[in-house]
From TrEMBL:
Pfam families xref list: Semialdhyde_dh
Name the UniProt record assigns to this protein: NAD(P)H-binding protein
Annotated ranges, domain Semialdehyde dehydrogenase NAD-binding: 8-83
Coiled coil: none
Gene3D superfamilies reported in the protein's UniProt record: NAD(P)-binding Rossmann-like Domain (3.40.50.720)
Length: 221
């Protein structure tokens, strides 16, 4: 490995943001390898020469040895209550797996970059936002070498699964996006823009912790 070369491990790699992130890491000279943790092998990932697929049916089985040797750990893992099937299942995905991933990274020289959501707040009456906020609060208490949290608004892009509310919102956004030329707090962003911001953060962040809100994501060049 060349001096300074970066090695990434990703959970949530097959979703909208995860695939956009892989695309950008693949084309980055700074990253020499990308390990993606998947529940089953995905043929589409074979097209990326830097990618190695680590098949693991239960992400909670990830252990310390599995994350050793990486410089950056990315989590694009997230669901919705409808997609997960219940509040308990949503919590198991969005909180428990992400918290476990972060636990393994503690006290290692690994930069953790994780996708949260605009509105994340542990005291929110909205369950989705509450869980996201609880996770953020938990991450901040850990001994993580470097932490980046990203809070996007509605994400624009073609998902592999149907999300009716988001698909409807995307359709409406496309009708008015030409009038939304300036950044503003709730403006939807593309998965590619979020992935781009994550890669820039991985390359340039020096602070031990940084929160990238939706405005910051929009403005990243």
């Amino acid at each position: 490995m060349k001096i300074g070369a970066k090695k990434a491990i990703i959970i949530g790699a097959t979703g909208l943001v995860g695939l956009a992130l892989i695309e950008q890491l693949q084309s980055s000279d700074d990253f020499e390898s990308i390990t993606v943790v998947v529940r089953k092998k995905t043929d589409k990932l074979d097209a990326y020469t830097k990618v190695t697929q680590f098949v693991l049916e239960d992400f909670l089985l990830l252990n310390d040895e599995d994350v050793n040797g990486f410089t950056h750990a990315f989590s694009c893992l997230g669901s919705t209550i409808k997609q997960a099937g219940s509040k308990d299942k949503f919590y198991a995905i969005d909180y428990e797996i992400n918290a476990h991933f972060a636990d393994l990274i503690q006290d290692k020289n690994i930069h953790l970059l994780i996708v949260s959501a605009l509105g994340a707040n542990a005291n929110s009456p909205i369950f989705y936002n509450k869980v996201k906020g609880q996770l953020e609060d938990y991450l901040k208490k850990l001994s993580i070498y470097k932490l980046s949290i990203f809070q996007p608004s509605l994400l624009i892009g073609k998902r592999s699964e149907v999300r009716l509310l988001e698909d409807t919102a995307q359709t409406l956004f496309k009708l008015v996006e030409k009038t939304w030329t300036k950044p503003f707090k709730y403006k939807p962003i593309s998965a590619e823009q979020l992935a781009h911001t994550m890669v820039i953060a991985a390359q340039t962040q020096t602070a031990a912790f940084k929160l990238y809100d939706n405005l910051a994501i929009q403005q990243t060049q």
